[in-house]
């Protein structure tokens, strides 16, 4: 590294997940000197999203983790005086388990390239060694820029969709992605296949004689790997939720763009159907009878201000929400919709929780669109980075790939004084915020974690075909047997910039009872069919076909109370990893709570000055003597119009 | 929606090693200032300058790295939706030139393929300390299919030219695009920024 880190800060933050990133922005916004570091080569920790090759590298990293030798750490001797002691941090991340990868898409086209691929893999170590840039980044990068423009034939049916791009929000020039979609690069493939012999055994063999038309092969996916932004956590933003409010309030929203979730789906009697949820949807629904429409509207209207009508539910306090719905003269159809798709609760949930959830759903409807949810373009992984950008704009210093050995604690006061990094450098600060996966086994010996089961699928069709193939859908699949967990399914189309054209990215999430595959495979089989199987079948497949699947378990540390950690100094604050919930409320609440604990008198993420309103001291005079001031002082000229920040929206249709 | 008094708005993003003069280029162009000895850029997210080109108002939104380049930790979202990238090195610093391929890799991965990239060798006022010859840079930029220009933020050499040429190119690209996709109005439900303005209410 060309430069070494400064050594004096107010706040050191370890981990770049969502709560840590929000905190970083909040602290830096109040003028604190913030150092924000992550041992990984990417932002977001378990909140990250990856390109396809990036995800494969991530898988590989976890699979190899066990045989990586302990890094030789620089001795701490001499760095810590007698009056201080060290609390070691964990060296390896242990939050991910039971990773399983299945490739259903044909790999036949790849065989000829294989020799070259392995060779290409050999090439990599030297280039990695010579640069601090991570192998994750370089893995899917072209060697030569020109090769980018080599022609690559795509299935024939994609051309008419080229106008589907995202409006940039800040420009009226539509940025066409048409070209990008057609460009492939051979180097992409190489690193990946070489490293993935493990998965190859799962590969379902494909008949080479099949018609190639319209087929998506594994090499297509690899070539278009950059088109994927695959989130490790699957979440959505409630349009009246805490995260949206914070994004807007702090103006961090200017770094991201969002799309509305377009459909709420239900899975009932083996069939996927669309749930009508807005007033217009209900009235336009073809599935519902006139009577049902009235019943549903009546019930939903009641839920919006259920607190005002306690007599409607007081008598049922002992019932579960599902039992209560039965008493409301709702048809089974409607009961299912409300319970699983609108309230999105388990059958056993209490009546008040059910009403609360229904009300929240209804309140979020219509703020930005027809469903209560938004999804960030390029994936959820963008969000922590947006907060990091805000932190950096206010002077926060960023350093990825930076490992920390330990906290240094003053024996007398019991307070943490510093951290020591993998170079043996001591970095002093007043407050320390750490993501819990960095805490050592010793610190966490009394902690019991929950687990989240996750699946990531690449499929060739939507679970429910519609006029437009660009749908973002959420579906809750109720448990097959009582006591099991409902599975949340999110299906993303290519215009969310999370998957390549003609594919869908499907995320499954539930709280774990077994390994992710054991928890989720039955739902995957209900909704999808493996790619190869249907190829021999002459009939038009009714289910979308699976091209690729990944299962893993992620640790859910969201419920852990601070007191369960052993021996942490009082000025070390702990953030948890992602929770299994649909929204981001937990992370935002945690960040705000910790911020207020640390800086009780400061405002949490106030709006920054409008860039267009900033005038610089010295604008009208010659700059000061060199070296007198290293900081550009910004002041706000309030006389200027203050609406310009909103200019991006001005190009949007309403 | 028609209140904005510009015909085009473009997002231009600067990248390159720390200390090559990115912020100086932006400040020179947007404010006509050259701040010596200036280190970090606090609280400034992007700078705006509206220029007129052939009678059309072009608003340039110019984004700086916010210091995240110092330890090679630029967020991906920084590159998203940029219309143009200015890849900057310091002609008196070989190292800043040698790092260009690394920056190009980041561009490849995170920026749109449509992005226009300009290579800028800054600090030509320090010609006596030059370490990177013009010819090398030209060859490199040609090989990478980039425009190339040498500037001095201090002497204000080529700074206007850099941004104005870029604006011209962006306009002609934009024109071509609107011709190609004649229906340029975004479809409902396409990516949007959120703010209080975009809200509508239930019912």
TrEMBL record, chain A:
One of its GO terms (biological process) is small GTPase-mediated signal transduction. Pfam families: GDI, RAE1_2_domI_C. Its main location: cytoplasm. GO terms for cellular component: cytosol; nucleus; Rab-protein geranylgeranyltransferase complex. Residues 452-579 form the RAE1/2 domain. It comes from the Eukaryota. Keywords: Cytoplasm, GTPase activation. The keyword Disulfide bond does not apply. It is found in: Cytoplasm, Cytosol. InterPro entries: FAD/NAD-bd_sf, GDP_dissociation_inhibitor, Rab_escort, RAE1_2_domI_C. GO terms for molecular function: GDP-dissociation inhibitor activity; GTPase activator activity. Substrate-binding subunit (component A) of the Rab geranylgeranyltransferase (GGTase) complex. Binds unprenylated Rab proteins and presents the substrate peptide to the catalytic component B. The component A is thought to be regenerated by transferring its prenylated Rab back to the donor membrane. Belongs to the Rab GDI family. This is Rab proteins geranylgeranyltransferase component A. It comes from Carlito syrichta.
């Amino acid at each position: 590294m060309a430069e070494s880190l400064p050594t004096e800060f107010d706040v050191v933050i370890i981990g770049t997940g969502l709560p840590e990133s929000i905190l970083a922005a909040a602290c830096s916004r109040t003028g604190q000197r913030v150092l924000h570091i992550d041992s990984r080569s990417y932002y977001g920790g378990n909140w990250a999203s990856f390109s396809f090759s990036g995800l494969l590298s991530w898988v590989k990293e976890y699979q190899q983790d066990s045989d990586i030798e302990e890094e030789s750490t620089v001795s701490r001797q001499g760095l810590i005086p007698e009056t201080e002691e060290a609390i070691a941090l964990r060296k390896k991340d242990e939050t991910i388990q039971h990773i399983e990868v299945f490739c259903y898409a044909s790999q036949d086209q790849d065989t000829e390239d294989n020799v070259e691929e392995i060779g290409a893999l050999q090439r990599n170590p030297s280039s990695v060694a010579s640069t601090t840039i991570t192998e994750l980044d370089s893995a899917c990068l072209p060697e030569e820029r020109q090769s980018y423009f080599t022609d690559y034939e795509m299935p024939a049916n994609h051309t008419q969709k080229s106008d589907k791009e995202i409006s940039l929000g800040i420009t009226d020039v539509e940025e066409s992605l048409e070209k990008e979609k057609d460009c492939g690069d051979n180097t992409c493939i190489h690193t990946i296949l070489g490293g993935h012999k493990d998965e190859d055994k799962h590969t379902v063999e494909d008949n080479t004689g099949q018609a190639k038309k319209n087929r998506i092969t594994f090499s297509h996916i690899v070539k278009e790997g950059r088109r994927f932004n695959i989130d490790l956590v699957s979440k959505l933003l409630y349009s009246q939720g805490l995260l949206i409010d914070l994004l807007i309030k702090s103006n961090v929203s200017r770094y991201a763009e969002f799309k509305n979730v377009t459909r709420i789906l239900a899975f009932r009697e083996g069939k996927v159907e669309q749930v009508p949820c807005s007033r217009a949807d209900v009235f336009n629904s073809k599935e519902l009878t006139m009577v049902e429409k009235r019943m549903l509207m009546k019930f939903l209207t009641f839920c919006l201000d259920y607190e005002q009508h306690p007599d409607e539910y007081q008598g049922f306090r002992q019932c579960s929400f599902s039992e209560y719905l039965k008493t409301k003269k709702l048809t089974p159809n409607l009961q299912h919709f409300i319970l699983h798709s609108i309230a999105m609760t388990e059958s056993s949930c209490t009546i008040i929780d059910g009403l609360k959830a229904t009300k929240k759903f209804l309140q979020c409807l219509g703020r930005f669109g027809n469903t209560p949810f938004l999804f960030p373009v390029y994936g959820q992984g963008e969000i922590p980075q947006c907060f990091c950008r805000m932190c950096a704009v206010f002077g926060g210093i960023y350093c990825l790939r930076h490992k920390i050995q330990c906290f240094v604690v003053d024996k007398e006061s019991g307070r943490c004084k510093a951290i020591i990094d993998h170079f043996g450098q001591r970095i002093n600060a007043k407050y320390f915020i750490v993501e819990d996966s960095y805490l050592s086994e010793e610190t966490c010996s009394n902690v019991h974690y929950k687990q989240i089961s996750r699946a990531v699928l690449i499929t060739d069709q939507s679970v429910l075909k519609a006029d437009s193939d660009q749908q973002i859908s959420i579906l809750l699949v109720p448990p097959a047997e009582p006591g099991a967990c409902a599975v949340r399914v999110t299906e993303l189309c290519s215009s969310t910039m999370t998957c390549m054209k003609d594919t869908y990215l499907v995320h499954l999430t539930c709280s774990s009872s077994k390994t992710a595959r054991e928890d989720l495979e039955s739902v995957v089989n209900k909704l999808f069919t493996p790619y190869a199987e249907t190829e021999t079948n002459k009939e038009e497949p009714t289910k979308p076909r699976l091209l690729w699947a990944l299962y893993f378990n992620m640790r859910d540390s969201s419920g852990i109370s601070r007191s369960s950690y052993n021996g942490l100094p009082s000025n070390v604050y702990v953030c948890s990893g992602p929770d299994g919930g649909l929204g981001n409320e937990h992370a935002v609440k945690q960040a705000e709570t910790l911020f207020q604990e640390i800086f009780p008198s400061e405002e949490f993420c106030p709006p920054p000055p409008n860039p267009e309103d900033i005038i610089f001291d010295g604008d009208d005079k010659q700059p000061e003597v060199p070296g007198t001031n290293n900081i550009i002082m910004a002041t706000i000229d309030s006389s200027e119009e203050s609406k310009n920040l909103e200019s991006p929206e001005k190009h949007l249709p309403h | 929606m028609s209140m904005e008094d510009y015909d085009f708005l473009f997002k231009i993003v600067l990248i390159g090693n720390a200390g090559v003069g990115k912020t100086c280029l932006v400040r020179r162009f947007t404010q006509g200032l050259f701040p010596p000895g200036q280190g970090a850029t606090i609280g400034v997210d992007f700078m705006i300058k509206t220029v007129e080109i052939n009678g059309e108002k072009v608003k340039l939104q110019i984004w700086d790295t916010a210091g995240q380049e110092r330890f090679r930790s630029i967020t991906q979202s920084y590159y998203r939706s940029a219309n143009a990238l200015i890849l900057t090195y310091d002609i008196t610093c070989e190292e800043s030139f040698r790092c260009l391929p690394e920056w190009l890799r980041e561009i490849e991965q995170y920026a749109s393929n449509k992005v226009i990239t300009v290579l800028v060798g800054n600090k030509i006022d320090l010609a006596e300390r030059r370490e990177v010859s013009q010819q090398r840079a030209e060859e490199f930029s040609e090989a990478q299919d980039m425009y190339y220009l040498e500037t001095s933020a201090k002497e204000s050499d080529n700074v206007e030219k850099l941004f104005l040429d870029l604006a011209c190119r962006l306009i002609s690209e934009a024109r071509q695009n609107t011709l190609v996709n004649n229906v340029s109005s975004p479809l409902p439900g396409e990516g949007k920024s959120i703010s209080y303005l975009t809200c509508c209410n239930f019912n």
